[in-house]
Amino acid sequence: MTDRLPVHLDVDTGVDDACALLLASLHPALDLRSVTCVGGNAPVADVTRNTLTVLEAAGRHDVPVGVGAARPLLEQPIDARHVHGQDGMADLGMPAPRLSPDPRHAVDLLRDSVDSAAAQGSPITLVPLAPMTNIALYARMYPASFARVGRIVFMGGGAHVSNATAAAEFNIFHDPEAAALVLDACAEHDVDVTMYGLDVFSEPRVTVDHLAALRAAATPASTLAAELMSFYHKRFGVDDATIGDAGAVAYLVDPEAIGTRRLPVRVELAGTWTRGRTIVDLRDWAGDMNHDPHGVAAATVDVALTIDGPRVADLWVRTITEAAQ
After folding, report:
1. Lowest CB count within 10 Å: 126, 132, 261, 312, which one?
2. CB under 8 Å to 173, separation ≥6 — which residues?
3. Mind listing the pLDDT tens digit for each residue in 136-170?
């Protein structure tokens, strides 16, 4: 396939980040150029090991992996091993990967990937699926390079739904300053940004029939995918489970499956009960905005509000089961 979309993933792998990595690695419409790791779901050392393990299973030894920030800009790190397992990726007991991380820091690897793609006339799509610490550091350290990003599609936030607190989603809550910095940089440098948040996150679900198809494919990637989803089935006592972050990658290849609305978005940094909340401005009457002492948020974002969950889940399963090894 020609005209593959160049992409870079920033991850805190993570069961659902692993699902996203498999899709980005194996879909024929995507050209996964590089991956960077950040502390989030698990400490960054675990995240790096998990990321290399997934890429090895997908046969993607060609993708450089950069190690980035171990903690948020200001806060102490808070992991999500209660969701993802003690090793951050389902406690499958997999052997250590043979792949090694790239010697470049994550921010430098990201800069090099973005600049290379821009020079080739195919700007990279940056897909942050984790706390945006690495991306904020990149925006501040290399603003001219950041301006060359084609677009950003991030998993985080929510217009109506939260999980880490009653107000905030985990990725944004983990490093709200970073998210705010990235949105500001997108506004400053006119980088298009899409928010794939909790309003749609849980809808693409992998069923027991999907698990059977993945196991029947019997490749390293499909076997890993089946084990990851089986972990969720068992951990939460359900017979279907979300592919989570992978939906943000699916949006790149099937945008019609996800309904977005262009809206102003800012991140709450100071609220006692609402720190880390994405404030999505859903008002449709200009009179309200004219009387708002805060003004309209600088960042205008394509916010995902609806999704065809089965269609996205089928895309994920089909991509993995049909991939040549």
Report:
1. 261
2. 164, 165, 275, 276
3. 999 999 999 999 999 999 999 999 999 999 999 99
